[in-house]
Amino acid sequence: MSARISRRTLLAGLAALPALPALTLVGCEADRTTGAPLSTVDTLDFGNRLRMPALAESTVDHDGVRVFHLSATEGSAEFLSGQSTPTWSYSDGRYDAGFLGPTLRATRGEKVRVIVENRLPEITTVHWHGMHLPARYDGGPHQPIADGELWQPEWEIDQQAATLWYHPHPHGETEGQVTRGLAGLFYLDDGTNADLPHRYMIDDIPIILQDRTFDSRGRFSQRGRAVTGLLGDKILVNGTYNPTSRSAPAGSGFASSTPRPRASTIWPSLMIGISRSLQPILGFCPRQRGYAGCCSPLPNAPRSS
Ligand SMILES: [Cu+2]
After folding, report:
1. CA spacing 20 to 30 A to 218: which of 87, 194, 198, 246?
2. What's residue 135's pLDDT?
C-alpha cells in the first residue's frame, strides 16, 4: 500500500477542515538569515514513512533499580533518498536507528540507573533535560565521559509525569554532537493521569522535530548559522525527512503494520509537515476513493513554479 499522498490531496484535506484555521499554510517568504524558503508547500510529497524511536530495553536488578543501557556510537542513516549520512546515535544494545536514541520510560518512585558507554572518538556527556536529580548525575560539562569509558548515574524519579529528553552536553561540543544525532526522549509516568493517552506508539505518539542542512553528498552541514544557533533548511520528524504516517481510530493502532482491512479506504491520514519557521502544517486527508478529486487546493496556497 503506497504511503505517498499528493500535495493536492493534502491541500484538499486542509480545505475540508474548517476546525483547524490556525494551521494555515505559510507563504513563500524567505528566511531572513539564510534566504532559504520558509514554506515546504509543493516541495514535499510526504513519501517517507514516519520513523518511531523504540522504547528502551530495561531490567530491574535485585535492589529494585530499573537499569537502562545507552551506548553512544558512530553510524549512518539515510534521510535523503539514496544518500547515506554519517551520524551518531544512542543504542540500548537492541535498538539503534543510526540517529537519535530509544525512549527511556520510568515511573515516579522508581529508582533508575543508566549505564552510559561512550564509543565515540571524543568526550561526551549525557544530560537529562528537565529531570530532578542530584547535581552529580545531571550530565553537564563537568561530568565528562571519556571515549571508551562508562558512566552510571543512579537516582530516584521524583517529579510529576513529563516528556523529557536526554542529550550530550560537553563543553563547546553540544551543538555538534546533537546535530550528528545524539538525543532521545525520557518519559516519566506518575500514575495520576490514567485518562491521558499512554500507549506508546498507539495513542501516545512521540514526535521529535529537528532542522538540518545537508551538503551535496548528504552529510550534515554546518551552514546556516544565525544568532540563535545553527539553522537547517530541512525538517526531520523522528529522523525522517518528508514524513507521512497513517492514523487510525482509537484502539486499532496508529501507523500499524497490520491495519484493519478497511483502514486504507475509510480512515484519514495524518500528514505532518513543518516549515522552516517551525510552523506546523497538519492535514487529515480522507482516503476514500474519489474524495480528493472533489476538492481543490486552498485559494491562496502558494505554488511552486
Ligand atoms: Cu538540555
Report:
1. 246
2. 97
Distance of CA 223 from the midpoint of ligand 1 (Å): 22
- Mean pLDDT of all residues in 102-127: 98
What amino acid is encoded at 276 in this protein? Answer: R
pTM of the predicted model as reported, rounded to 2 decimal places? 0.73
In the chain the domains, ranked by start, together with CATH numbers, are 7-46+201-297 (no CATH), 54-189 (2.60.40.420)
Provide the 10 A C-beta neighbour count for residue 52: 20
Contact 19, 209 (CB under 8 A): no
Angle value at C-alpha 90, between 88 and 93, nearest 5 degrees: 125
**What is the whole-number distance in angstroms between the Cα of residue 132 and the centre of ligand 1?**
13
Q: How far is the CA of 59 from the centre of ligand 1 (A)?
A: 26
Q: What is the pLDDT of residues 237-248, one digit of tens each?
A: 999 999 998 765
C-alpha cell, 150: 562508562
